[in-house]
Write a structure and sequence with these properties.
Radius of gyration: 24 Å
Helix content: over 70%
Order of helices and strands: HHHHHHHHHHH
Number of helices: 11
Shape: elongated
Strand content: under 5%
Structural class: mainly alpha
Distance between the termini: 73 Å
Oligomer: single chain
Largest sheet: none
């Protein structure tokens, strides 16, 4: 099968309403990778964005159980990117919650999936750092001064931050907290 025939087959499979999502994922990804199609061209040809197609293809990396659940739930396209980056446990938990329609109209399906994934994995490092209070950040800065192993670059960042108009706030906070 040449590339043009492959593209036609992929488009035919994509538009086949009788196929479940898991069947589409398995067959389309098999054709895509065996022929060496490109994401942008194939996505454009079948009416998907490159991100959607890339996420769709990454879903093929899941175990059979997760793929079957994907076929049963048939999650919205907006969740594919989130699901394609999830662990098996996160994906199963989010898909089961989607199947039970636990989200309201106030949240999008992708927001709902992300929240469910976080219930399994816990907050990210960035979220944990974002939850630090001003007092804790100042304590970290003060402590970093006493450890020469802390990179000079990091200490310069904190010093620069204090120079940017935060020095007065810091002095006031220091007197309040320490």
């Amino acid at each position: 099968m040449n590339k043009l025939e492959s593209l036609d087959k992929v488009k035919e499979l994509w538009n086949d309403e009788a196929l479940r999502l898991d069947e589409k994922i398995e067959t389309i990804s098999e054709i895509f990778y065996s022929i060496g199609l490109d994401v942008e061209g194939t996505g454009s040809y079948i009416g998907m964005t490159a991100i959607e197609l890339g996420s769709f293809l990454r879903l093929s990396e899941y175990d059979e159980d997760v793929l079957r659940l994907l076929g049963t739930v048939n999650p919205p396209r907006t969740t594919w990117h989130m699901l394609s980056n999830a662990s098996n446990e996160e994906a199963i938990y989010a898909l089961k919650a989607l199947m039970q329609k636990e989200y309201s109209d106030k949240r999008t399906a992708s927001e709902f999936v992300y929240e469910k994934m976080q219930e399994v994995s816990g907050p990210s490092i960035e979220q944990k750092v974002g939850d630090l209070t001003e007092k804790e950040l100042f304590a970290l800065w003060e402590k970093s001064k006493s450890y020469p192993s802390i990179l000079e670059k990091t200490r310069k960042f904190w010093d620069l931050w204090l120079v940017k108009g935060e020095r007065d706030t810091y002095q006031q906070s220091k007197s309040m907290y320490w």
